[in-house]
Amino acid sequence: MIEDVTSVVNEVRLLNNRLIELVEELHRDTGITASQRAVLEFISRNGPETVPAIARSRGVSRQHIQVIVNELVSAGLLEPQANPAHQRSPNHALTETGQRSIDELLQREGDYLTTHLDGLDAERLAAAAATLADLRHTLRKDTQ
Hints:
Blueprint lengths: L1 H25 L7 H13 L4 H8 L3 H13 L3 E4 L9 E4 L1 H21 L5 H17 L6
Antiparallel strand pairs: 1-2
Helix pairs in contact: 2-4, 2-5, 3-4
């Protein structure tokens, strides 16, 4: 069993690395990095959020997300908003330009996937996604 899990973990790492490379390749002309794209997509899907909340959801440090958010604010893609729950930690929302940008990035990715993933079985993909979600939940942060 441990060999099977190790094999899956290794494939996930390799796939993650390839996806980061692919995003960088697809969006090189936009100046948006894979990390910035991930934050834009998160906010697009979930609405305005604080830096600490984004960091928790992504499993990375607050400092890492703060750098990315600062870059996106400087680029005019995100804007800070008042956060009634916490004065010192503003929510960050997509600007109109930010929403257009993430929509365009996702469209490019969809176009790429449509032309390059022909032949993959939908049922196997759904089963793989479910298995990965199960593994992620099993490995939840309970060591603290």
